[in-house]
Amino acid sequence: MSKQRVLTGITTTGTPHLGNYVGAIRPAIQASQRADVQSFYFLADFHALIKCQEPDLVHQSTREIAATWLALGLDVNNAIFYRQSDVPEIPELCWVLTCMAAKGLMNRAHAYKASVDVNVANGDDPDFGITMGLYSYPILMAADILMFNANKVPVGRDQIQHIEMARDIAGRFNHHYGEHFVLPEALVEESSAILQGLDGRKMSKSYGNTIPLFLPEKQLKKSINKILTNLLEPGQAKDPDTSPVFQIWQAFATPAQTADMRQQFADGIGWGEAKRQLFELVNGQLAEARDKYEALLANPAHIEEVLQQGAEKARAYSKPLLEKVREAVGIRKIK
Ligand code: TRP
Which of 148, 286, 329, 333 has its CA 20 to 30 A from that of 73? Predict the structure, then answer.
């Protein structure tokens, strides 16, 4: 039996933070080590253009995300790690699928509807500032997934609808042109933590409450010191379950360390001391990877080479599939 295929994309906007690490990167790297799974991880730089029209930011983010995954030990012999824009079959498939995707389906996409709602609330034209890129983004995502006949797609909850749309588009294509695509399933890790940020809300770039993953040591310490606490003094018992300090601790600690910290909260550990311990724990787990990350960023040619090798492996799948798709839709050599 062929291996189960797991695929996920990372949009190249922004710098990876602790929330990305705990919720997505760490589980993905672990999953990529499984012998019964073929994983495909890619830098979704075409998707980045939907959200970010600053060339230098898109480029910098691509470099940082690639370096992050490599520094954290992604095994590129086992996983196929590539940049979306290095696989020209993806945008081509995207067009073919665009001609199979119902406009009404796209009208229902949450991400697009949210932008319309904001416009309406502001009294603007409903289409104000909405590009066709945003509107048809679920089709590009379907192309990413169907191109490699992925079975499972690990995503956050906000992306489930897009996977359903990919299934819908694949089903329609298969029905009309014959079986070409596997119907993918979303994989939402119930157990994977959604980390709280500095202010206690979900850690997210859009809230400006993140702790970047590879901050230099001193800045990591400073950032941890900014995590929201209450006014309880040392000696007063504290509630671990409402504290972002404890929640971040839990995401990095062993069960025994978590139980110990829970006890320390009950015993009235001071916030300064709790944060000092949190810094030690997080820093201890990231220090080695941070050195690798710095070394990788100092050697961009190496990153580029790894991505080119990844693209070559990815194209060993995408080229033959696209040939079949072209044949199926009637785009053929004249003979
Ligand atoms: N849209 C996804 C996100 O914002 C990223 C992404 C792009 C993706 N293409 C994908 C995820 C394909 C899974 C599969 O998180």
Answer: 148
Q: What is the pLDDT of residues 114-172, one digit of tens each?
A: 999 999 999 999 999 999 999 999 999 999 999 999 999 999 888 999 999 999 999 99
* Closest Cα to atom 4 of ligand 1: 11
Q: What is the dihedral of CA 135, 136, 140, 142, to 10 degrees?
A: 110
- Of the chain, the percentage scoring pLDDT greater than 90 comes to 92
Q: Which two tokens stand for residue 200?
A: 């206690």
Write out the DSSP string of 46-95: HHHHHH---HHHHHHHHHHHHHHHHHTT--TTTSEEEEGGG-THHHHHHH
Sign of CA dihedral 150, 152, 154, 158: positive
Question: Which of 76, 50, 113, 10 shows the shortest CA–CA distance to 314?
Answer: 76
- Per the structure block, which two tokens stand in for 8? 């996920």
Specify the 3-state DSSP secondary structure of 42. strand
Assess whether the C-beta atom of 203 lies below 6 angstroms from ligand 1. no
Ligand 1: which of 162, 163, 164, 182 to mutate, judged by most atoms within 8 Å of the beta carbon? 162
Q: Which domains does the chain have, with CATH numbers?
A: 4-194+300-329 (3.40.50.620), 214-295 (1.10.240.10)
Strands 80-83, 185-187: pairing is unpaired
Dihedrals φ, ψ of 82, to 5°? -145, 170
What are the residue ranges of helices labelled H in the chain? Answer: 18-20, 26-32, 45-51, 55-71, 89-98, 103-107, 110-121, 132-135, 137-146, 160-177, 217-225, 244-252, 255-266, 271-297, 300-329
40: DSSP letter? E
Q: Whose CA is nearest to atom 10 of ligand 1?
A: 9
Band of pLDDT at residue 191, cut at 50, 70 and 90: low
What would the pLDDT profile of 282-327 be if each residue is shown by its tens digit?
999 999 999 999 999 999 999 999 999 999 999 999 999 999 999 9
Q: What is the pTM of this model?
A: 0.94
